[in-house]
Design brief:
The chain has 10 helices and 8 strands. The chain is an alpha/beta fold and 260 residues long. It has an 8-stranded mixed β-sheet, with helices on one face.
Amino acid sequence: MQSIEKIVMIGAGNLATNLAVALHNNGLQIVQIVNRTLDNAEKLAEKVNAKFTDDYDGINDKADLYIIAVSDDSICELLGKLNLRDKLVIHTAGSIDMEVLHAFSNKYGIFYPLQTFSKNEIISFENIPVCIEANTVEYETVLFQLGEKLSNNVHKVSSEQRKILHVAAVFASNFSSYLYLIADKILSDNNMSFDLLKPLIFRTAEKIQSQATENALTGPARRNDTAVLQAHLQLLENLPEYQQIYNLISNSIVKHFHQS
């Protein structure tokens, strides 16, 4: 069975940075960082003691694994620049089918860490769910073993399941972060600090760890408190976009809990 020792990381963004550092810290050799912006490639290469390039024709051809960690909409364009027919190639995207790799390599798979990343904050992979898929059982096992070097939370997940998981993650993380942004603006426009909400946010996250999502949800829409809902909508009359979001989500909550 193929063993993974030397890795080429294609990409130098948030996920690529965290993944490269995690692999490096767990004894794997990142031999090269490849990125369209040379400066970013160099910065990541310094963190993991690797060479770097912005020339896709200059990719090291002696590695055991090639990880494509770029934005979802850049993957297909990038693949056309690669010539890795006999190499194990994987991508890390949540919404892109594994089979896009088929035309570019006969060994391919998915390594999808389900987490939000920032290159300025390196986090541990220990508890991060890592979703694995490959075109053969052998490569699936290889990727599973690689995942276990980083995380105690590795799963075999099909492309269709991963796409559904990605949608759910957008609701749970991206949308909630945008709602924090809205809350911050509402408070700052009225000379109040977002810090006032942080204990509530932390407690809400804690409740999800130990309670069913339906039991954790509280608030006026959960109670179908129409007087409070209307008062809130009135307060938002000068912010029609936020008013619309408030109304849409509140109506959805009421329908879920109070309409059969």
